[in-house]
Amino acid sequence: MGERELTYGDAVKEAIAEEMRRDPRVFIIGEDIAEAGHPFKTLVGLVQEFGTERVIDTPISEPGYAGIGVGAAMTGMRPVVDVMFGDFITLTMDQMVNQAAKAHYMSGGKIKVPIVFRTTLGATRRSAAQHSQSLHAWVSHIPGLKVALPSGPYEAKGLMKTAIRDDSPVVIFEDKMMYRMKGPVPEGDYTIPFGVAEVKRAGKDITIVATSSMVGVALGAAKMLEDAGISAEVIDPRTTWPLDKQALIESAKKTSRALVVDEGYERYGVTAEMAAVIAEGAFYYLDAPVKRMGAMDVPVPFSPVLEDLTVPSEKTVFEAARTLCRK
Amino acid sequence: MATNVIMPALELAQETGKLLRWIKAPGDTVRKGEPIAEIETDKVTIELEAPASGVLSAVTAQEGDVVPVGHTIAQIAAPNEAATRSPQGRGQGEGPEAPAPDSRPKASPLARKVAEEHGVDLARVKTASGKIEKADVLAFVESQRVVAAPTNGSAGRLVAASPKARRLAAERGIDLRALKGSGPGGAVLTLDVPAATAPSTTPPLPSPQKGEGGGVGTVWRIMAERMTASWTSAPHFYLVREVNVTRLVAWLDKARKQTGAHVTYTDLLVKLVAATLAQHPRVNVSWKDGALERHADINIGLAVALEDGLVVPVLHKADTLGLKEIATRREDLVARAQSGKLRPADIQGGVFTISNLGMYGVDAFSAIVNPPQAAILAVGRITDRVVPVNGQPAVQPTMVLTLSCDHRALDGARGAQFLGALADLVEEPLALLV
Fold first, then answer.
1. Are residues A11 and A144 in the same domain?
2. Best interface-test mutation with A: which of B162, B172, B179, B188 has the largest number of A CBs within 10 A?
3. Interface of B with A (CB under 8 A)
């Protein structure tokens, strides 16, 4: 049987639907997710199968329904809280950071918060500065939260299922530019473990660690590098927490050079953390400084020309890698 | 005001100093305290530091010149000041040329202030417009810094190198300063570090040529590198025994008569050490990659001082050689070492080294282990010493043997057993026959 292909968006929906069939405690709550099938059309048909009791539309009220989700999780449900744009986690921060992340610890393990916050990241959709940010570094910073960044349809389904079954609060960031991207997705049940990086492409001259949609960018750059005589290894950590530090370190030890690419703001970002992990763990094996590539330190511009310049591209990753390899 | 750079007096009785190398070239911007030249006295080599910030000029001493202490060898011209022609010239009435007022570079006050802070001569800062602003000065400072970096590995900072290159160089016993870096600002990268050569089998062939790398020949450089590698990687310990050599002295006499060869104490010691090593194979080892490597053959190295450094030719399978053969081979090796005609095979495969400084009147000394060997025997002179015999002072010829050991390959007990057995043999060489 040939491999079935799904879009990234359909892979997310399939994961949620399978989990809702599997476990009656699972429900989803958010804005425009029922009749509208989500603004990005990722949940079309879900309300028809599960009804409005389990696919719950809310008013524009992120802090309120995020709180409903945390409370439901504390009392035994397994909610998926849909935050349309990652930029809006500004509004759900207290529920995530001070409630969901802390309850298990502060209750001495008596309370579990098995909640999934499903939201987005990614620029270049011409959505301007308040709808284009990649803020996953904020939650990756918080002990008690797990953070997953699916880089393709296969990961979108596998990581979502792992997230829903996890007893800890998990934040999943989907790149809104990837929803129509197609790729092989197995039918039926499978999960992807958290904290296990995947080597997307083996190489020996430079390690490119990339997250979410930057994995595709890194693979494109790796192809260009190959033509330039440079063998790049591309690694997808898949979760920023738990982070597969050993995979990053071992790869950097092997290649002696590392470039970390992520779409979040570069300063104080996910790239900084991963670069530091590599610098600490592989220091005596490095032949060049570890390089970070994130989003430019500016609010994402509305001008398409300018917006495209603010995030890493195949070309800029290629050039940075080539410079590190001094070729 | 220009500041004179003078040949310093580093020792009380020093009269002259030799200018080995200019680290800075005339026209270079220097900062106070920065090394500008290397000076050699009878005993030491030091870096001469700039006495002031400014531009190095009026250089009169060339590399290799021997200059009386206190004589001016260059000047540091203050920023903004054209250098005087030469220190000697002044005495002949050629006063310093004062720059004409309108030849002063057109610079903003801020640029002047920044230039002063960085010791930059504004005359050297070129701009398209002819006017100098702060950014131009800073760009100039930056460009100088980048140019200076590769040669400026001595200013108390680490040599620029990637962590990996630094680790590899340390593992291979290579001095980073001897390498030319291809990285940014001259940083040494992995590809600049020569591939590992197993020191026991393929040390670079010493060649007699001199004058390479600031007056140091290849032999000296290799000695420096290998001793540094040993001292920084092999934890040393030392065992000392004073031995009665009455029998050894008598044996030498007989051996010379019997063999007709010019047998030396060193030859006798080679014979005895080889025999002791055969009895103590646990000393015939090397520490390699976290394990003990045992050697099959007993190849004894002899430290031979040359005019331009130290080499250690090897007597292979010394335990199988007779005294006459040892003496003949040793003479041949030493002669060829001194004429720079050693072949690679002559210096390879040593497992133990003997260093004898007795002929220089040295009583005792502690040698540095010759890597990757486990031990080296330092031999002092034979002389009459007072020793207690049956509770009474007696005068006997004795010799002090010091065994330096690599504590990764040997422990105190193994070393002591070996040295004890050797001492017994020296005191009673007849035991060889047993």
1. yes
2. B162
3. 162-167, 182-183, 189-190
Q: What CATH number has the domain bearing residue A70?
A: 3.40.50.970
The answer to whether residue A300 is domain-embedded is yes
pLDDT of residue B125: 81
Q: Residues B237, B367, B39, CA angle at the centre, nearest 5°? A: 120
* Whether pLDDT at A64 is above 80: yes
Cβ of A287 within 8 Å of Cβ of B190? The answer is yes
Total domains in the fold of chain A: 2
CA separation for the pair A81, A64 (Å, rounded): 11
> Distance between CA A12 and CA A7 in Å, rounded?
9
Domain hosting A45: range is 5-184
The share of chain A scoring above pLDDT 70, in percent, equals 99
**What pLDDT is stored for residue B200 in this prediction?**
40
Q: Among all residues of A, which ones are annotated catalytic?
A: 62, 131
The predicted-structure confidence for A131-161, as pLDDT tens digits, reads as follows 999 999 999 999 999 999 999 999 999 999 9
Strand partners, B294: B285
Q: With beta carbons under 8 A apart, name residues in chain A contacting B163.
A: 283-287
The answer to whether residues A155 and A98 belong to one domain is: yes
Shortest alpha-carbon distance between residue A285 and chain B (Å): 4
| Integer CA distances (angstroms), B5 to B19, B48, B49, B64, in order | 12, 9, 9, 17
> Taking CA atoms, what residue in A is nearest to B170?
A284
pTM listed for this prediction: 0.53
Beta bridge partners of B306: B309
Within 8 A of B162 by CB-CB distance, chain A residues are 256, 286-288
**Under 8 Å between Cβ of B196 and B203:** no
Same domain, A246 and A138: no
Q: Which of A205, A254, A284, A290 to mutate to test the interface with B (most CBs of B within 10 A)?
A: A284
Q: Which domains does chain B have, with CATH numbers?
A: 3-151 (2.40.50.100), 163-214 (4.10.320), 220-433 (3.30.559.10)
Q: Answer yes or no: is A191 within a domain.
A: no
ipTM score assigned to the predicted complex: 0.73
